[in-house]
Amino acid sequence: MAKRSIRRVAGPVLAVAALALVAPAAGATTPKVSVTKVSVTKVSVDDNFFEPKRVTVTVGDRVTWKWDGYVAHNVKVEKGPQKFKSAIKSEGTFSRVIRKPGVYRIVCTLHPGMTMKLTATDVPDTTTSTAPPPST
Ligand SMILES: [Cu+2]
Fold first, then answer.
1. CA of 88 to the centre of ligand 1 (A)
2. Are residues 14 and 54 in the same domain?
3. Are residues 120 and 98 in contact, defined by beta-carbon separation less than 8 angstroms?
4. Residues 58 and 107 reside in one and the same domain
5. How far is the CA of 57 from the centre of ligand 1 (A)?
6. Ligand 1 mean position to 63 CA, how many Å?
7. Could you give the CA distance from residue 33 to residue 36 in angstroms, rounded to a whole number?
8. Is residue 130 part of a domain?
9. Which of 27, 41, 116, 120 has the most Cβ atoms closer than 10 angstroms to its Cβ?
10. What is the span of the domain harbouring residue 83?
């Protein structure tokens, strides 16, 4: 009698264990693809500072600034290969896809000293190039 009940339990447990082994292996390929394609970098716009102050991205990446403080700020490229500027606001987000490699000095025009440095590096392989392939 006691032996019977043990055998009954053993069957389903083994089946669940087998499923658990398969599931992580199948799902592991999904994040790999998205990481290589587009990466999103987030920068916090807080009261009188950017966090982090130094950011490095790859050309084609999106950078999103998120207003986390209470005071109004803006995001402006003071010096850099690509110019952009957000509105002055105290909440919400602002985002840009970085298209040109180089060093960007970004400031909040309302607060002297509220600066950050964004470095954009060129894509090593040109798989995402906008130019059409030279085939005839
Ligand atoms: Cu500011």
1. 9
2. no
3. yes
4. yes
5. 23
6. 18
7. 6
8. no
9. 120
10. 37-121
What is the 40 CA–ligand 1 centroid distance (Å)?
22
Q: What 3-state class would DSSP assign to 61?
A: coil
Q: Which residues of 13-50 are buried (b: 16+ CB within 10 A; e: fewer)?
A: eeeeeeeeeeeeeeeeeeeeeeeeeeeebebebbeebb
Instruction: Measure 11 CA to ligand 1 centroid, in angstroms.
Output: 63
pLDDT higher than 50, residue 20: no
* 51 in the same domain as 10: no
- Residue 45 CA to ligand 1 center (angstroms) comes to 8
The tens digit of pLDDT for each residue in 39-98 reads 899 999 999 999 999 999 999 999 999 999 999 999 999 999 999 999 999 999 999 999
Q: 98 C-alpha vs ligand 1 centroid, how far in Å?
A: 22
Residue listed under structure tokens 């398969």: 22
Q: Residues 81, 108: one domain? A: yes
Compute, in angstroms, the gap from residue 105 CA to the centroid of ligand 1.
Answer: 15
Q: How many domains does the chain have?
A: 2
Please tell me whether residues 96 and 74 are part of one structural domain: yes
CA of 101 to the centre of ligand 1 (A): 25
